[in-house]
Each structure stands twice: as structure tokens, then as C-alpha cells.
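Thread: quick sanity check before group meeting

JM: Hey all, I'm pulling together slides for Thursday and realized we never actually wrote out the predicted structure for the chain we discussed last week. Dropping the sequence here so it's in one place. If anyone has concerns about the input, flag it before I start.
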Amino acid sequence: MNHAVIVFLLALGLLLGMLLLLQVGRHLGRKRALKEADGDAAGIGAVDGAIFGLLGLLIAFTFSGASARFDARRELIVEETNDIGTAYLRLDLLPADSQPVLRDLFRRYLDARIEMYRKLPDVAAAKEHFLRANELQTRIWGEAVTASRAKDAAPAAAILLLPALNAMIDITTTRYMATQMHPPVVVFAMLFALALAASLMAGYGMVGDTLRTRVHMLGFALVVAMAVYVILDIEYPRLGLIRVDAFDQALIDLRESMNHDLPAAGPN
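JM (edit): ok, ran it. Output follows.
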């Protein structure tokens, strides 16, 4: 099932669960109000405040973490673009007869990297391009090592080119691991559990006017459910509605700039 649909269903389930528990809590609160004196409820406010405070902190921390990881993934796209661009430019240090093969490998490598992210959320198709890019990495490294040892290569070819290629290869591992960095499932489970518990406690304290109470109940449930939805969606920026795809344009622009190095077609 599509990630966006799963997140929507989770948020909708949370919304309905909160509304149900708000109503249950309100019903229990009304029964308590009929049987007990006002003084018997002393201390309940402190418990409510603790639960609501913990819920607010958890939402704030999970949202802050998701937002930070979202920004980090965008920065990694820019970093990979710079690493590939730097390595590509340093191919000029190699013998002229070695450059065409390597430049072609770079174009194919960048095509594979771009297509890998375009295919998401189709994980199987993305993995195919990921493996293709890894294969091209190996070929690029081997060709570059051989060419940098040639007699007509620039003296600093190996010193400048190979570290750039190493950075280009390393960033792919960094980006891959960044996609695996998420809070433990127990954190999200606790977030849902606290939201439901807060709903029960909030409903328990709502014994006022029916219309006003229902508006507050609906507003509270909607705000929390929307916050959780955004957190879950931004946590997976290649699968949901909030995406980092716009930053892939940097890689696409770099790929287009490589076309300028292609030899002009001769007359037919």
C-alpha cells in the first residue's frame, strides 16, 4: 500500500480514536459530576497537565527531529552534486584518450542515480538502479586508477582525482543510511498512546455546554491528528506528500551540463 495512504489512514484512525475517547471521557466526567462534590476532583488538573505537557514535548521533539532529517537529506543531495561535479571536472587531468570512456561512465552513473530516486516509492525498481550505479562506481574507479598512472597523465592526477572519486562514492553510502534514520517505532507508538490518553483526560474534564464542548473536542482532535500526520509524512520524504524531489534538480542540471562535453555530430 502507498505510504501516503498508510499515513493518512493512521492519522484518520488517530482522529477517530481521539474523538471516541473524548466522548467516553466526557461521559465519565458527567457521571462523576453527578455523584461527587467538586472537592473530590482536586489533583486531577495536575495529572492532566502532566499528560498534556508530555504529549506536547513528544510532538515537538518528533517534529523537530523529522524536520532536521528532512533538511539533512536535502543538504546531502547538494553535497552529492558537488562531489560528482568535482570528480567530473578533474577528469581533465587524465590523458585525452582516457577521458571519453570515463565521461561516458559518469553520464551513465548519474543517470542511474537520478532514476533511482525517480522510481521511488517503487522500491524494487529503485534498487535495480542502485545496484547499477554501484556497478558503474567500480568501473569508474578502475578506469580512473589505470588512467591516472599513465605516462601522459598530469603529475597530480592521482592526488586530485582519486580522493574526489572516493568522496563521490562515500556520499552514496551516507545518503543511503540517511534514508534509514528514523525514530524507533516505540516512539511513534508512545505518541499515539499519549494522544489517546490525553483525549480521555480532556473529555473527562469537559462537562460544560454541549455545543461548545463538541467544537473544542473536534478542534483538539484535528490539531493533534494533523500534527502527527505531518510528522509521519515528513519522516519519509521520498514516499509521502512532503518530498525532497525539488532538490534533485541539482543532479539533473549537472547531468545536462555533461551533455556539453559530448562531441558534435559530424555531417551525414
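AS: nice. Confidence is low (pLDDT under 50) at residues 264-268. Residues 121 and 239 are 5 Å apart (CA to CA).
JM: adding both to the slides.
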